[in-house]
Amino acid sequence: MPSKGDPHPGSGAGHDAAVGTVLGAVNELLPGIGERAAQAESDRRLPDSTVKELTDTGVMRLLKPKAFGGYEADPVAFYEAVLSIAEHCGSTAWVTGVVGVHNWQLALFESKLQHEIWDENPDAWVSSSYMPGGKLTAVPGGFELTGRWSFSSGSDHCQWAILGALQMNEDGPPTTYNVVIPRTDYVVEDVWHTVGLRGTGSNDIVIDGAFVPSHRALTKTQVYSNDAPGRESNTAALYGMPFATMFPSVITAPVVGMAQGLLDIAIDYQSKRVSRAHGKMLDADPYSVAALGAAASTIDACRRQLLGNISGIHKTLAGGGLPTMDQRSTTRRDQVLGTVRCVSAIDDVFDRAGAVVISDTHPMQRIWRDAHAAKHHTVNTNERTLHSWAHNAMGLGPSESVV
Questions:
Q1: Where are the beta strands (DSSP E) in 142-233?
Q2: Are 247 and 387 in the same domain?
Q3: Which helix (DSSP H) or strand (DSSP E) does residue 320 occupy?
Q4: How far apart are the C-alpha atoms of 176 and 217, rounded to whole Å?
Q5: Rounded to an integer, what distance in angstroms lies between the CA atom of residue 253 and that of residue 265?
Q6: Which phi and psi (to 5°) does residue 316 adopt?
Q7: What is the pLDDT of residue 400?
Q8: In whole angstroms, what is the distance from residue 360 CA to residue 370 CA?
Q9: pLDDT-flagged residues of the chain (< 50)
Q10: Is 33 in a helix, a strand, or coil?
Q11: Would you tell me how many other CB atoms lie within 10 Å of the CB of residue 291?
Q12: 359 burial class (0-12, 13-18, 19+ CB within 10 angstroms)?
C-alpha cells in the first residue's frame, strides 16, 4: 500500500495484489473496530484511532484515480470492504462508504480541483450533503454560496465537503449544482443527537457567503451523465459508473453488513441460550431457529444482488459498452429492497432474541437501531424506486433518475 509520497499503484496482477492487500488490512482491523463501536456511539463520531487506521489501510483510495495515488479498483472490492466493516460497526461502515465513494465523484470534476485537494493531502477526507441546502449567486469567476446542510456524515474528520446548491434562474427552474468547499470556508455545527448511527457524526454544515470558483462546481446533470469534465482524463470504466448506482449502494451495503453481524451474534447467542421461563435450551424452539435460517438466506441474497449488479455494470463499461436502462433501474430496485429486506430480517431475529438484547450493553440493540436509522435515508424511499423500475419495465422509461 502506498504512503503519501509513493507513486500511484500499478495495474494488472500487481495492482490486483495491492487491492487484495488493502482488503486484508481492513480485515485485520475488524476486531478493534468492533471493540470501539460503543465508543463511536458515545462520542457521536468515529474515534480518531479508527479514522487513522482506515486511512492507513488504503481503503479510502480504492475508488481514487491512479494519477493521484489511488487504485481505480473494481468497485466490488470497495463495497466488500464496507460490508465487512458493517458486520462489526454500522457507523464506521457508513462513514467509510459515504466518505470513500466521494473520491470516485471527485474524479468527475476538473483536474484542477483534484490537484487542489490531493496534491496537498493525498489522504484528504471529503464529506457531503447533496440536498440543495444552499443558494448560489453568480459572481465573476464562479459563485457565492450561502446555506445550511444537514446529515454530513463524518464531517468532523473531513477537510472538504461536496454540497448541493441551487442557482435561481429568472426564465426557468433553478439549476442544481454539486459544489466542493474547503473546510476553511464552512463551519460544522454539532447537532447529531439521534436514535441510531450515532457514531457517524452526521452534523450540519453552515456557510455564509463563501466564494466557489467555477471549476469546483458541477451541475447535477453533469454528475449524472458522462459529460463531466473529469472524464476526459479519468477514462477508466470505474468513472463511467452511474452515480445512482455508486452512492445508493454505499447506503445499503452497511445495512446488509449490519444484518450479517447481528445474525452472527444471534446464532452464537441462541446456541447457548436457556429460557428462564421454560428452563430449556432455546435450540428446542423450532420457530426461533428457523428464523435464523430465513434471515441468513435473505441477507445472502441481498449481498449477492448488490455486488452482482455493481459488477455487471462495471463489466459492461470495461467491455466498451454502456449500461442499459434495465441494468440501472434493476440495480436501484435491488439496492432499495436490499435495505428493506435486511432491516426486516434484523427485526425478525431481534424480536425472537428475548429481553436481554434490549440492554444498552448488548450489541444487538445497537445494530437494530443503526439499521432502522439507515433505512430513513432518502435513497431508501422504496415505493418511488419500485414504481420507477416497473415504469421502465412497461416500456415507459424510468420515473426517477437512474443514470
A1: 142-152, 160-169, 172-182, 187-189, 203-213, 217-219
A2: yes
A3: none
A4: 10
A5: 19
A6: -60, -45
A7: 81
A8: 13
A9: 1-11, 277
A10: helix
A11: 21
A12: exposed
Which structural domain, as residue segments, surrounds residue 266? 241-393
* Res 10: pLDDT: 44
Q: Are residues 141 and 79 in the same domain?
A: no
- Domain-located, residue 86: yes
**Is 268 in a helix, a strand, or coil?**
helix
Is 311 a domain residue? yes
In what helix (H) or strand (E) does residue 375 lie, and over which residues does it extend? Answer: helix 363-375
pLDDT tens per residue across span 194-225: 999 999 999 999 999 999 999 999 999 999 98
Surface-to-core class of residue 84, CB atoms within 10 Å of its CB (0-12 exposed, 13-18 middle, 19+ buried): buried
CB-based contacts of 117: which residues, under 8 Å, 6+ apart?
A: 106, 124, 126, 159, 160, 180
Based on the domain organization, do 250 and 206 belong to the same domain?
A: no
Write the single-letter amino acid at 332: R
pLDDT single digits (tens) 162-200? 999 999 998 889 999 999 999 999 999 999 999 999 999
* The three three-digit cell numbers of residue 67, written as one number: 494519477
pLDDT at position 15 is 74
Written as nine digits, the cell of 202 is 452526521
- Percent of the chain predicted with pLDDT > 90: 86
Same domain, yes or no, for 44 and 145? no
pLDDT for residue 14: 65
Q: Do 250 and 224 share a structural domain?
A: no
- State whether residue 196 is helix, strand or coil: coil
For residues 232 and 142, what is the distance between their CA atoms, to the nearest angstrom?
Answer: 22
CATH number of the structural domain spanning residue 294: 1.20.140.10
* Alpha helices per DSSP H over 209-351: 220-223, 243-272, 286-318, 325-351
Which three three-digit cell numbers place residue 181? 468547499
